[in-house]
Amino acid sequence: MGGHPELNEGELVAAARAAAEHSYSPYSNYSVGAALLFDDGAVVTGTNVENASYGLALCAETIAVSKAMADGRRGGLVAVAVTGPHDSGDGDPITPCGRCRQVLNELAQLGGTDPEILCVGSDEVRRVALSQLLPHAFGPAHLA
Known about the structure:
By secondary structure, this protein is of the alpha+beta class. It is built from 4 helices and 5 strands, in the order αββαβαββα. It has helices at 9-20, 60-70, 98-111, 130-133, and strands spanning 33-38, 43-47, 77-83, 116-120, 125-129. Strands 2-1-3-4-5 form a 5-stranded mixed sheet.
C-alpha cells in the first residue's frame, strides 16, 4: 500500500475502527471512523460528530482532513480507510459521501496523489482509487 511496509492495510483499518469508538452519533447511532495515511507514514484519524441541528454534523473523513490540514499537511495523502458500524445494517463496505470525496480530493490534489480508499465492511474491504469515486473532480487547479 503506497510503498509503506511499516503500516499495513490491517493497521490502517484498525486505526479507523479505533477512531470510530470516539464517535458522537447519538441521533443516527451510526459510528464512522476514518484514517488517513500520508507518504511519510503518518496516520491522522477522525470520527463523525453529530449535532442536534442535523445539518451541522461532520463526517469522519472531513474531521481527519481538517486535523491534518490544521497540522500543516498539504498533500502527501496515499490511502484512506473508512469504517462504519459492523453490528448494524447489511455490513456492506461504506464509501465516503459526496462531500467527503470532495474534501479528500482537495488534500490529494495539493500533493498530486490519487489515494486508495479502503471502504470497510463487516466481511469485505473494497479498494477504490479516489478518482474512481469522484471522476472529473473539481479542485485547486481549476481556480488558478
